[in-house]
Amino acid sequence: MSVSERLEPPPPPAADEVGAVVLAGVSGCGKSTVGKMVARRLGWAFVDGDDLHPWKNVYSMHHGRALTDADRDPWLERCADLLENHVANGVPVILACSALKSRYRRRLRRDAETLLIHLACSREELIRRLGGRTGHFFDPSLLDSQFAALDPPTPGDGTLLVDGDADMEEVTNDIVRLITRPADRAARLAAQGTGAASALPGGGERW
């Protein structure tokens, strides 16, 4: 079995071992905005996964056609290669990438220095944000298809949850703490494992 086909993801990085971070979540959750803010705060590189899509995928999304797994395959490979190269060369990077399915997240984590963080947002907040977007190729009508495709992170897959409905500065602060403080990562995972409310602040359902 190849590394990219690993059934179980590696554990979250320990202290001083985070070499790459994937900010995941459905469109409108703030991956790119927050990713740039975190990258500036830490002095890391930032890459928007949307920029790695083949033109065929961009064309499909612009015209309201949901991507298939076959469409996403070359894109995910580009994303995984980028993360692996940054880790290998000691250049920390934040990658904004939807990573909706658990097998996508496993594929992106080729090594234990890659940390996955899922920005979980309410449907109402996502619709509000997407409605206010300009100059972006994602059609807001595709939001339901993203919900349908999403495998919400589970306690066992090593993905940390962050409340994406919060103010962007608050979200940035939370993510910086998770990246730089291993004790905070462990506490977040433990809270997620018990279903504690502190795992994801705020009431209501999140995606």
Summarize the structure.
The chain is of the alpha/beta class and about 210 residues long.
Question: What does this 3D model show about the protein?
Answer:
The protein is α/β, with parallel strands linked by helices and 207 residues long. The protein has a single domain, classed as P-loop containing nucleotide triphosphate hydrolases (Rossmann fold), CATH 3.40.50.300. The protein is 43% helix and 12% strand. A 5-stranded parallel sheet has the order 2-3-1-4-5, with helices on both faces. Helix 1 (31-42) packs across helix 7 and helix 7 packs across helix 8 (182-194). The longest helix is centred in the middle third of the chain and has 20 residues, at 69-88. Mean pLDDT is 81; it is low at 1-7.
* Named CATH topology: Rossmann fold
Secondary-structure element string: EHEHHEHEHHEHH
Tell me the strand percentage band.
5-15%
Q: Report the total helices.
A: 8
Low-confidence stretches: 1-7
Shape field:
globular
Number of structural units classed as domains = 1
Strand order of the largest sheet: 2-3-1-4-5
Largest sheet: 5 strands, parallel
How far the N terminus sits from the C terminus, by CA atoms, comes to 31 Å
Helix content: 40-55%
Please state the CA-atom Rg, rounded to the nearest Å: 16 Å
Q: What average pLDDT do the residues reach?
A: 81
Number of strands: 5
Pathway: Carbohydrate acid metabolism
GO molecular function: ATP binding; gluconokinase activity
Pfam families: SKI
Enzyme class: transferase
